[in-house]
Every structure is written in structure tokens, then in C-alpha cells.
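User: Good morning. I'm curious how zinc ion would be positioned relative to this chain. Could you predict the structure with it bound?
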Amino acid sequence: MMDNVLIFDTTLRDGEQSPGISLNAGEKLEIARQLARLGVDIIEAGFPITSLGDFEAVKAISKQVKGPVIAALARAVDKDIDRAWEAIQAAERPRIHTFINTSPVQMKYQLKKEPDEVLEMAVAAVRKAKSLCADVEFSAMDATRSEPAFLYRIFGAAIAAGATTINVPDTVGFMLPEEYAALIKDLRANVAGIENIVLSTHNHNDLGLAVATSIAGVEAGVRQIECAVNGLGERAGNTSLEECVMIIDTRQDILGLTTNINTEEIIRTSRLVSRLTGYMVQANKAVVGANAFAHESGIHQDGVLKERTTFEILDPTKVGLAKSQIVLGKTSGRHGLRERLEELGYELSDSELNGAFERFKALADKKHEISDDDLEAIVAEEAREVAAVYSLEYLKTASASDEQPAATVRLKKNNSIIEQQATGDGQVNAACRAIAAAVGLEPKLLSYVVQAITGGLDAQGDVMIKLDINGRQVLGRGVSTDIIEASARAYLNAINKYLSKA
Ligand code: KIV
Ligand code: ZN
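Assistant: Good morning! Here's the predicted structure, ligand included:
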């Protein structure tokens, strides 16, 4: 029988630590539900002590998402562990994940503690967590730059205190894959009790090696991979979930391993996370990038047309691509829309469905065929609006070669309407300036990216904007067949995110 590798998803915790990402509780719940459909074994839902918003989101996920283990992160201190437990205790299968720095540099400069004190804190934290919850994970932060002898001691003590999973993070993405494999083998040979727990990887991508290092760990005996959808995470990101899963799936001949992931949900999960976080996926990203299955050169196209496997090692349908794409049109009704959205995994309330239906009709007036990608964009846009402080009620822009571009916007906040006008270098600039004046903020634009959601001249434009508002970076996303409207929506979405966490 093949061995199974557990997939521990940390999109909502380490992934959310990516600069500019700021998910609200509803968005986190939506991602968690999709992660459950994807079949991840563990969802790390957040770090409850860090904010009330995170605490509430972890609590909501614990109550509402069934199937996976729900984990919450806690430093090795009582108040973090109590807060984590408060957030996850309603889960079907809760896990407390506690961690402490173990490398000389981090113990000295960040913790300002001696190794023996750190070891005592780790043991006390695991004991405390174990008194609340049967499933306890212990992580040695910066394990790959720690003294091996210290790791043997601290891991052995954590296991004796009740840890059921031991995580060996390459926190700063420093190790080469073969070095990491050697470390895992070394730990397996020297840590007391290690044969009774699950060993785990958690590797960052600073040198672009996170996936390779995680797979090397698995080859050396690790049976849990911590990873994030689209490789999101601190700095250069975390191990990419979709890449690890497809490596394990595609190279069973060498690895002899399986996961519980329903691979056909991969693309949808990647797109949902991209839309809600505002992080676009690079076109040449393995597995989920727009070009991952696109063949440009004539020789490759010829080969694939004759026999797909000539130049494709992954079957696109296996990751959920190229299933039914053109689905609905102008004459489709509310019932058809609801059914298709349910097939896509969206459970909308009546009022959400009404909002989505209005958007669908407006889009169907402009666009002949509405694809699944369009529908997913509609649902995401509706969710953004529902959670918004300000909504865009009206936008008018005008420009001519001999006139300065101008814009008028009307925003709704609770039941009042605010109207503003502004001019700018272009229509997008004028619209954003009018919005800034209406909300009374002075955001600085850091980046602006436009992509088409589907092919064709009538494609919806998907705009991502990064703003600096009073020193905080926020990402906004907006979708429309009109690029100027999509830009205004993205700009307002970023402002709403700022205001909802201000
Ligand atoms: O990178 C890291 O070490 C972490 C730990 C909290 C597991 O994110
Ligand atoms: Zn991390």
C-alpha cells in the first residue's frame, strides 16, 4: 500500500502574512470552504491572538467548516494558547499549533533567552496545549539554522510533553533540498519518540527552493507538507500546494506516495484565492498559471494535437481545467444561474444570488457567452460589494484630445450618497481622484495591473491595485467589461479593505 502525505494548508495564516493581503472573515470562510472541497487534511485558519478579526474568522471556520482538522497558531505562551483554543474548540477536529524560535541568532536577538529557557518554554507550551486539545503540533522556528543537538533535545522534550506532530521549518528558505533531507534523516535517527509522531515540513521560498526542499523532506520520511495555495506566504512565499500535490501525483513511480487532494479542484481554488487576496498568479506559474497548458511553438502544437502526452506531462482536466467552459447566456434565468453556481461549489444566500443575478444580466447584455471564469468573477465582485463600507453607485468619465479627462463618482455609505468630481491625467486617474476626494483619504498608488479574464474583445478586465494608505499597504481588485470601471472598483475595494481594518 502507498503511504499518504498529509496536506496542511496555511494560506489563511502564513499566506495572509503576504504584504498587502487583508482578508475579512467572510472571505476567509469562503476560502476555508473551498479548501475543504479541495480535500486538504488540515486548515491552519489563523493566528487568533494577533487581532480580533483573526480570532473571529478562526472561530467561524471552526464552527462551519467540516472535514479537515482546523488548526490555530500560538506562540509558546499561555495567553496565545488560551486564545487559540477559544477560537478552535468548536471544531470537529481542533489542533493547537505552537512554536518557538530555536536558532542561535533568533534566540539571542529576538527572544533574548538562553537555549535552556527556550526548551522550558516549549515544554510548558506543549503541556498547556495538550491539557486543552489532544492534537498538538510543535514547530521549531528557524529549525534549519538551529544546532542539531538542540533540535534533538527540544523535539524529544516536546514529544514527551504530548506533541503529536513535529514541524521542521526552513523559516528563511535557506537550505538546499539535499541538506534538508539529510537533516530529516538525522532527526529521525536521534530524536527520542520520533517514530510515534507525524514529521512535517514548512519551507519558505527565498531562494526559489521551497517545493524542492519539501519534496526532499518527504523522500526522507516527512509525512505532512505545510503549504499555501499559489505559494503565498511571508516574503517570497511558502511551498506551493498545487505544485507539491501534482509532483506527488505525477511521480508516483519514484515517490510511491499519495495525497487526499481532489486535484480537479486545484484551478478553482487557485482562482478563488487569487481573486480574494488580490494576488494575481504569474502566467508561467507551474500547474495554475495561464500558460501552464498553452503551447506556443509550432512543433509543440503539432505534437500535442497528434498526441497530448508528447509535450504535456500533466492532464489539464486533472487539475480542473477545460471542463465545461461556456455555460450560460442572455436567456438563462435565476434558476440556471443558481444551479451552475452550486455545481461550481458556491452556496449563495437569496440576497447574494439576487446581487449575482443582476451582475450576470448586466454582463450578458454586453457579452454573448458567459463562462465559468466570468461567473466566478461575478461571485467574487458581489462578495467584495457585500462586505464594503462604500459601494460604487455611479461612474461617469469623459475625455477628448483637447480636454482634460474628468470623472464624476457617486458612492453609497449606509444610506447616504456622496458625489464628487475630479480631473486627472487620464480617465482612470480622474476616477480614482474623485473616489479619494469622496472618502476623504489620500492613497498613494504603488502598483496597477490589468488582465483579461477570458479571451476575446468583450472579455472582462480584471484590475489589481496596490495602495499605500497612511503607511499601510492594501490590495484591491475590481472586474468589469469596462477597464475604467474595473479600475475604480479595484481602487474602492482597496479603500474598503483599509477602512474595514483601520
Ligand atoms: O516560517 C515559520 O517558521 C513559521 C512557523 C510559525 C511555523 O511560519
Ligand atoms: Zn512560515
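The CA atoms of residues 390 and 413 lie 5 Å apart. The pocket of 3-methyl-2-oxobutanoic acid (ligand 1) is lined by residues 14, 99, 139, 141, 167, 169, 171, 202, 204 (CB under 6 Å).
Let me know if you'd like a different ligand tried.
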